[in-house]
Amino acid sequence: MSESTSTSGVAKTGPVGVGVIGAGNISTQYLTNLTAFPDVDVRFVADIDLERAAEQAAKFGVPASGTVEQLLADPEIEIVVNLTIPKAHAEVALQAVAAGKNVWTEKPIALDRASGQRVLETARAAGLRVACAPDTFLGAGIQTARRVLESGAIGRPQTALTLMQQPGPESWHPNPAFLFQEGAGPLFDVGPYYVTALIQLFGPVKRVAAVASKSKPVRTIGSGPLAGQTFEVTVPSHVTAIFEFESGQTSQSIFSFDSQIKRTLFEVTGVDGALEVNDPNMFVGDLVLHDGGDEPKTIAVEGETAARGTGVVELARAIRAGVPERASGEQAFHALDVMVSTIEAAERAEWVDVVSTFTPTPALPDGWDPAESTLA
Ligand SMILES: NC(=O)c1ccc[n+]([C@@H]2O[C@H](COP(=O)([O-])OP(=O)(O)OC[C@H]3O[C@@H](n4cnc5c(N)ncnc54)[C@H](O)[C@@H]3O)[C@@H](O)[C@H]2O)c1
Questions:
Q1: Contact, 275 vs 296, CB < 8 A?
Q2: What is the spatial distance between Cα 25 and Cα 144, in angstroms, rounded to a whole number?
Q3: Of ligand 1's atoms, which has the minimum distance to the CA of residue 92?
Q4: Same-domain status, 109 and 234
Q5: Which residue has the higher pLDDT, 366 or 324?
Q6: Which atom of ligand 1 is found nearest the CA of 106?
Q7: What is the pLDDT of residue 12?
Q8: 241-261: b (≥16 Cβ within 10 Å) or e
Q9: For the residues 285-307, what does the mean pLDDT come to?
Q10: Which ligand 1 atom is at minimum distance from the Cα of 133?
């Protein structure tokens, strides 16, 4: 991957211009952080709802807002941050690539393997990058867990157990139907945090077995102007999966929007001990080491603690340095392949081989901080 260049072929320097497409719920967290990080310069907010785009731009002091086409016409924007709903992710990413922009996209990278592959191949052919959420694995929690496991503290890690149980987001999200339809549900909406953390720690998945179910065909919106309206649930709302990794390690996971017990759990068991890891949907949290001593030991997490947008800064710095970004499209595509394979395994009641693979990127260096100014 070469250093970023302008259309005149001159290497660009300084903070990286960013345009945000999708001014909905999660854009507030992104805009709060990205407008505070000096290595990126947020220039534009676009949405099909122009009023929403204008409101978010005004709230965060972003100089311009408007349509996707207007955003893509700004030559100073080098990264498009795609915060649209899952079924629009691939289409918006392809639009951005066609306009010569690198992409940071919310998860999942696409709804199916073919469109995910098309996004990656089109970007590769154009010499552009597509990086993908989640970036929580760049947080202090998972980065510290990687260091602890690599230090041999639990011996060779062999298995992992993960649980994500909750009643579902329709009680708090003002427009939640998409979270129960293709591209979401507990597996595709929250699963990417768990799958990404698992493949960061254990490497690529080789094959998958699963069962899946749905508790209610219809749910009711619980808050906001649409409260009381109902919508259809079209994907499984409870998924149990077993992954076997290329390394021979294994994991078992539950992804559920069907439980009144709100619980998350992520633990790794090795030959000589076990490590309780923080919720991978969070950037920080306690790690607890069980190494056979009298008492479990709480481990202080080390590393940056910022929230969403961290991966955009890591991408921006990687573009300027001409090195690979950590939240790569290849990693996201493998995560998508694992999740699609999980649904296929449940539907067919058999193991499904995962064809794609990826190479995990190195842990962040100590002291890496998205809030630092490194490109001025
Ligand atoms: N809400 C959360 O807590 C949360 C957390 C992490 C990740 N995410 C992810 O972020 C993404 C967005 O989620 P959200 O909750 O903000 O959704 P949302 O429905 O609140 O917002 C999505 C916005 O995208 C706009 N949009 C849709 N298609 C578009 C298109 N083709 N061009 C331009 N604009 C378009 C919509 O008008 C809307 O304003 C999803 O992929 C979701 O998985 C959300």
A1: no
A2: 29
A3: 31
A4: no
A5: 324
A6: 41
A7: 84
A8: bbbbbeeebebebbbbbbbee
A9: 87
A10: 7
The residue whose CB lies within 8 Å of the most ligand 1 atoms, and thus the one to mutate among 21, 25, 181, is 25
Q: What is the pLDDT of residues 21-45, one digit of tens each?
A: 999 999 999 999 999 999 999 999 9
Q: Which atom of ligand 1 is nearest to the CA of 108?
A: 41
Q: Which residues contact 21 (CB under 8 A, 6 or more apart)?
A: 46, 47, 68, 71, 80, 81, 82, 83, 84, 92, 96
Same domain, 178 and 197: yes
Contact (CB, 8 A) for 63 and 52? no
Last residue of a domain, one of 243, 278, 298: 298
Q: Does residue 352 form part of some domain?
A: no
Residue 1 has pLDDT above 50, yes or no: no
> Residue 157's pLDDT band (boundaries 50, 70, 90)?
very high
Q: Is the pLDDT of residue 217 over 60?
A: yes
Least Cα distance to 331 among 137, 128, 97, 114 occurs for 137
Q: Determine the Cα–Cα distance for residues 335 and 358; give it in Å rounded to an integer.
A: 10
∠ Cα 176 179 180 (to 5°): 105
Residue at 285: amino acid letter: G
Q: How far is the CA of 77 from the centre of ligand 1 (A)?
A: 20
**C-alpha pair distances (Å), 144 with each of 130, 148, 274, 285, 303:** 26, 6, 14, 10, 7
Pocket of ligand 1 (CB under 6 A): 21-27, 47-49, 52, 68, 83-86, 88, 92, 106, 175, 189
Residue 100 has pLDDT above 90, yes or no: yes
| Same domain, residue pair 149 and 294 | yes
- pLDDT bracket for residue 252 (50, 70, 90): very high
Query: How far, in Å, is the centroid of ligand 1 from the Cα of 111?
Result: 14
Residue 345, in any domain of the structure? no
Same domain? For 230 and 108 the reply is no
pLDDT band at 304 (very low <50, low <70, confident <90, very high): low
Cα–Cα distance, 139 to 141 (Å, whole number): 6
The C-alpha atoms of residue 93 and residue 21 are separated, in whole angstroms, by 10
For residue 3, pLDDT beyond 60: no
